[in-house]
Automatic annotation (TrEMBL):
Name of the protein in question: Amidohydrolase
Gene Ontology molecular function, alphabetical: carboxy-lyase activity; hydrolase activity
GO cellular component, one term: cytoplasm
The keyword rRNA-binding belongs to this UniProt entry's keyword annotation: no
Domain Amidohydrolase-related: from-to ranges: 14-284
Entry's Gene Ontology BP terms: secondary metabolic process
Keywords: Hydrolase, Lyase
InterPro entries per the UniProt record, alphabetical: ACMSD, Amidohydro-rel, Metal_Hydrolase
UniProt keyword Signal, yes or no: no
Domain of life per record: Bacteria
């Protein structure tokens, strides 16, 4: 990884899609992936099933100096507790982009506002796991607040690896019609609905795409990126951000970076995706986003 960064002229990488959670929640996530084979017909071995400090050390060894702690609730009265944990984690861990989340429930805008006041820099919305539509009326004031503040939300709304009741581009398109200035980062580039989510990124100035799992051999086998979307990648150069899904990935971390450099789009494009776009979007200082 150090050699690859040197070739690109990068001192560090920003990973916008990593998961750090309370241990009992992470254990349940890992149990889900252990059983995902029967759901998708495919095994998903977790490459970095390590304790929390070891995982942080692995990321730093790869030159990652800014990363998220994506948390997400699957039921009411869970989000605020996760936000408290994530705030403590951010305070105690250098390089973490203070992450928060929400769920369609009464009072959501109140705890989202408290998270914003506490310094949250990114939110996570997981339409598939949460089993809710992003256009739920209970979320209207949340989206209004996030649109006003310009704080990005990483949203898993694509139908991969398995569709949910509210996944797909339709609800997100409706959300953006209501809140066109929202800053959204579409997780996994919206896999497998790559085309539709890329079109949203091309249409709305605040819509971005993260590369989590995308372009790797693992994903290309079952959900390859269409040629027409690949052709749009140069135009989307300022809208694509690197994400990995660390630690819940079924292959070594460098594979995700090499999948991007292997696209043949050039060093400038790779620098934007691996670092510059996220540094700009999150307003990271040189000290925050570089190796110290």
């Amino acid at each position: 990884m150090a050699r690859l960064r040197d070739e690109l002229g990068l001192t560090s990488i920003i990973d916008v899609h990593t998961h750090f959670m309370p241990k009992r929640v992470m254990d349940k996530v890992w149990a889900y992936f252990d059983g995902v084979g029967p759901l998708t017909g495919r095994e998903w071995p977790i490459e970095y099933r390590l304790d929390e400090q070891a995982r942080i050390g692995v990321l730093r060894s790869f030159g990652v100096r800014a990363f998220t702690s994506l948390v997400y609730p699957h039921k009411p009265q869970m989000a605020e507790w996760l936000n408290g944990w994530a705030a403590d984690f951010a305070r105690g861990t250098a390089g973490v982009l203070h992450t928060a989340t929400f769920y369609p429930e009464p009072g959501a805008v109140d705890y989202v506002a408290r998270a914003v006041d506490a310094g949250a820099r990114v939110f996570k919305a997981h339409v598939q796991v949460g089993d809710y539509t992003p256009t739920d009326p209970l979320l209207d004031p949340v989206w209004e607040l996030l649109e006003h503040t310009g704080i990005p939300t990483i949203i898993h709304a694509g139908s991969g690896p398995a569709p949910g009741r509210f996944t797909g581009p339709g609800p997100v398109g409706e959300l953006l019609r209501r809140h066109p200035r929202l800053v959204l980062i579409v997780a996994h580039m919206g896999s497998p609905e790559y085309r539709e989510f890329a079109d949203l990124a091309l249409r709305y100035p605040g819509v971005h795409l993260d590369t989590t799992l995308v372009f790797t051999d693992f994903t290309e086998e079952q959900a390859p990126v269409p040629a027409d979307v690949r052709a749009d990648l140069p135009e989307l150069a300022d809208k694509v951000l690197f994400g990995s899904d660390f630690p819940n990935i079924p292959y070594p971390y460098p594979d995700a970076v090499e999948a991007l450099t292997g696209l043949g789009l050039g060093a400038d494009w790779c620098r934007k995706v691996l670092h510059d776009n996220a540094a700009r979007l999150f307003g990271l200082s040189t000290e925050e986003a570089s190796i110290r």
